[in-house]
Amino acid sequence: MSANHTILIVDDVPENVELLKYLLTSEGFKALCAYSAEEARLILVNTPVDALLLDVNMPVQDGFSFCRELRTIEKYKLLPILFITSLDRDIGFEEAMKNGGDDFINKPFNKRELVAKIHSVVRIKDLQDELLREKAKYERELLTARKVQEQLIPEKQFIWNGVKAQTLFHPFFQIGGDFVDCWADSKKLHIVIADCSGHGPSAALIGAMFKMQLFNLSPMMSLKERVDHLRQNMEIVLPEDYSITFCYAFLDQDLVLTYINGGHPAPLLYSEGKTIALTGMSPMIMGINLNAKDEVQTVRLNPGSKIFMYTDGASEAMNENSLFITEEGMKNIFNEAVEEGGDILGIVQEKILKFCGNHTPGDDMAMVCIQI
Fold first, then answer.
1. 246-257 pLDDT per residue, tens
2. What sections of the sequence does the record tag as coiled-coil (predicted)?
3. I need a surface site. Which of 119, 124, 192, 357 has the fewest CB within 10 A?
C-alpha cells in the first residue's frame, strides 16, 4: 500500500530532509522534498500528494503560517499535515491543532512513531478519497435522475377553453417526492398535486409510481372512482413509513371545480379581490388500508377567479429566525402575487425565497395555478 502514496517533506535543513526521505522510501513510500514553503507550494500545484511532513521553524514563511494558508484552499482542506517540531508535546499538540494540522512529531523523532502516524493519516485519506469518489458518482447519478424526472414532471403552461393552467416544480435535492400536473380531455381540465413523505431517490420513485397509476386510469372514471383506484393501488406498494398527501380536481366547461383533498394544504381561491382557503379534507394515502372515505367538494368559479395549490415545502419554508411561512402566510403571498399581476407562480416563488433569505428551503416545492 505504501508504494501508492506520495509524502511531501518540507524542511529547510537538508540533513533532516535526507533522513526523512530515507525512512519513508525504506517503508515503500514515494518521497518528494522541498526546502521552503514556496518550493512546497509549487510541488503541491503540480503533483498529487497524500500527506505533508512540515517543519515549523523555516525562514520567510514558517510551517504554521503555511498550513493555515493551505487550509483556506478547497483542494487541501483534507490533506493530512503532520508538523515536525521541537516544541513540548502538550504545547506542540495544541499549536498543531490550532493551526490546522492533523498531528505532530517531536524532534528528535522516533522512527516507529513517525512511520505509524504516516500510515494512519494516509489510511484515513484513502477512506476520505473513496467517500469523495462515491459522492461524485452519486451526484452524477442524481443529475441523470433529475433529467429523467424533468421528463416525468415537466413544468407546463397552456390554455384550455380560455382557462390558463400553469405548474411549477422545484425539488430541494436534485430529485424530489413532489408531483404536479395538469392536462385536459374533451370535457374537463384535470389538476393533480401530491407530496410523498421523504426526500431524494426513494420519494422520487414513489412519485413516479403515483404518476404511472394516475395515467393508467380509465377516462370514463369519475373523480371519486379515480381517487379510490389511486388509493387502493398505492397502498399496496407504499412502505408503511411513507405517506402521500394529494389534491385531485376536475374543472368542467361550466367552470365548476370538483375536488378531493387527501390531507394536503387547502387549495386557495382568489375571487373578487380576496383569497380564501377551500374547505374539505379526506385522509392521505398511507402504507396501510384505512378504508378511507373520500369526500367530494364542489365550488362554482366566476370569471377572473384563480385557483392555487401547493405542497407543504412552501408553507413550511423557514427563514433565518426559524419562522415558518405557514398556510396563512401562503394565502397572503398568493393574494399579493395576484394583485401584482404577471407570472403568478414566478412571483410566489420569489416571495418564498425572499422570506427564506440565506436559509435554503428544506423541502421540495410544487405549485399549480389555474386562472379563469
1. 999 999 999 999
2. 121-148
3. 357
